[in-house]
Each structure stands twice: as C-alpha cells, then as structure tokens.
C-alpha cells in the first residue's frame, strides 16, 4: 500500500498510517475437511507500539509477521499460518488444504511437527511443566508453631 505513493511521500504515509491504524483483520476462506463449505483462516494484527514502530521504520517492516506471531498470547494476534495450523489441529481442514494455503509451506510443515520459531513461542510453551515449589516459610522466633487464629 505504501509503495503506491511517490517515494518522497513514503515516510509521511508511514507516519500517518502508524498514527491512525487500530488493527487489521484479513481472512481467506479454505475448504472444510468434510467438503461442506468453507471455513475462514484469519490473520489478526493489533496496533501495538511495536507494530506501529515496524510500520514507521521501513527497515523493520519485514519483521511484522514475526511480531504478529509473537503477539498471539498477549494481544490475540495471529498469522494466517497460525490460524491454518489451529484449523488443522481442530480437524476442520485437511493437512493438504492447510499446507496449500500456507504463506510458507515448508515452515508450515515444521509447525505441524511442533517446531516453532522463537517469535511464535509463548510463555505457556516456554514454561516448565510444573512450577517450582514455593520456599518454606521460616518460623518466627518465639512462636511454638501455634497460630493466634487457630481454634482452641
């Protein structure tokens, strides 16, 4: 969109777009696994500070897909490929349909195998299986283990 303007106006357009954009939602309709119609694969971008920075700075614009993917857990953003993967996991679309519609089919294959890029990892996927046990509270000097709130 920005490239439709004369080169000398591109910085101005980037700044204006970054200032006013709230978000973008795009969809592609893909064939359902049962053959009964189509289901939307949806890409969602929310205008966070980092997204706005990527729009303003042409050298950072190529980072937008990774920023969108990384914003899945916190902001509800998702790329088309993340949406396709979820639709495939829910068995709403076939693997072949998802792969054919993917932005990068080879990357999609890796995602199906559970290999995620760093940007796509969420705190949930990076977290340990069980949280560490909290440290035991040290007894207060002079207390015998009884509590003033305990029934006698």
Summarize the structure.
This protein is of the alpha+beta class. Helices cover 39% and strands 12% of the residues. The protein has one domain (2-113): 3-Layer(aba) Sandwich (Rossmann fold).
Describe the structure.
With 152 residues, the protein is an alpha+beta fold. The chain has a single domain, classed as 3-Layer(aba) Sandwich (Rossmann fold), CATH 3.40.50. It is 39% helix and 12% strand. The chain is built from eight helices and two strands, in the order αββααααααα. A two-stranded antiparallel ribbon has the order 1-2. A hairpin with a 6-residue loop joins strand 1 and strand 2. Helix 1 packs antiparallel against helix 2 and helix 6 crosses helix 7. It is elongated and about 50 Å long. About 7% of the residues have low confidence.
Structural topology:
Layout: H1 10-20, E1 23-31, E2 38-46, H2 49-56, H3 64-70, H4 72-75, H5 80-89, H6 95-101, H7 105-112, H8 123-126
Antiparallel strand pairs: 1-2
Helix pairs in contact: 1-2, 5-6, 6-7
Q: Please report the number of helical segments.
A: 8
Structural class: alpha+beta
Can you tell me the CATH superfamily?
Answer: P-loop containing nucleotide triphosphate hydrolases
Order of SSEs, N→C? HEEHHHHHHH
Which CATH class applies here?
Alpha Beta
> What is the number of independent domains?
1
> Order of strands across the widest beta sheet?
1-2
- Tally the beta strands: 2
In the CATH hierarchy, the architecture is 3-Layer(aba) Sandwich
The termini sit apart by 75 Å
């Amino acid at each position: 969109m920005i490239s439709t303007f004369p080169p000398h106006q591109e910085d101005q357009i980037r700044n204006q777009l970054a200032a006013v954009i709230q978000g973008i939602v795009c969809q592609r309709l893909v064939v359902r696994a049962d053959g009964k119609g189509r289901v939307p694969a949806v890409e969602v971008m929310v205008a966070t500070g980092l997204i706005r920075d990527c729009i303003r700075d042409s050298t950072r614009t190529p980072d937008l897909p990774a920023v969108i993917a990384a914003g899945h857990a916190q902001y509800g953003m998702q790329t088309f490929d993340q949406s396709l993967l979820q639709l495939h996991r829910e068995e709403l679309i076939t693997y072949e349909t998802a792969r054919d519609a993917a932005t990068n089919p080879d990357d999609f294959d890796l995602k199906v195998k559970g290999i995620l890029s760093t940007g796509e990892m969420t705190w949930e996927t990076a977290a340990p299986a069980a949280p560490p046990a909290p440290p035991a509270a040290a007894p207060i000097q002079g207390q015998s283990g009884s509590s003033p709130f305990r029934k006698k």
